[in-house]
Amino acid sequence: MVVDRQVGSPAGDQVASTLLARVWRIADASYLEESTIDAIDAVVLPQIERLAGYCGGYLLADRDGGAILRISFWDSLVHLRAADVLATNAIAGMMVVTSGGTVSEDICEVVLSDPPPQLGRRIRSEEG
């Protein structure tokens, strides 16, 4: 993986440096109620969001499949790795509040960005 490189467009314009995504998936998360999401939003995520190099993220819930995904974006591998200990503690906290089982992690380079509409920080489920 190439990190922090500048990529030229066909017109020669420069685009943003490489963006990295840390993707956590907690499977067997049996407790995905709104109060759980509130706790993650209030306690767990702020710990990560204040770190250098953090560029935003998503929290996704697969309520039918019983899984939760956390995607966080980082400006460099150095900053992503500097957040390893805190990120590991945060994901452990998410496992506790969701009663989650197995965890997987991937580090990916973002190669295409098609942002969703701006919906605000918190999106309530139709059920909640």
Structure, described:
This protein has helices at residues 34-49, 77-82, 84-98, and strands at 19-26, 54-62, 67-74, 103-110. The chain has one domain: 2-Layer Sandwich (Alpha-Beta Plaits). It is built from three helices and four strands. Strand 2 and strand 3 (67-74) form a beta hairpin. With 128 residues, it is of the alpha+beta class.
| Oligomeric category | single chain
- Based on secondary structure, the structural category is alpha+beta
General form = globular
Biggest sheet features: 4 strands, antiparallel
| Neighbour order of strands in the largest sheet | 2-3-1-4
Outline of this structure?
This protein has a single domain (19-110), classed as Alpha-Beta Plaits.
How do the strands and helices of this protein lay out in sequence?
Layout: E1 19-26, H1 34-49, E2 54-62, E3 67-74, H2 77-82, H3 84-98, E4 103-110
Antiparallel strand pairs: 1-3, 1-4, 2-3
Helix pairs in contact: 1-3
Describe this protein with a few key phrases.
128 residues; alpha+beta; Alpha-Beta Plaits; four-stranded antiparallel β-sheet; 3 helices; globular; disordered N terminus
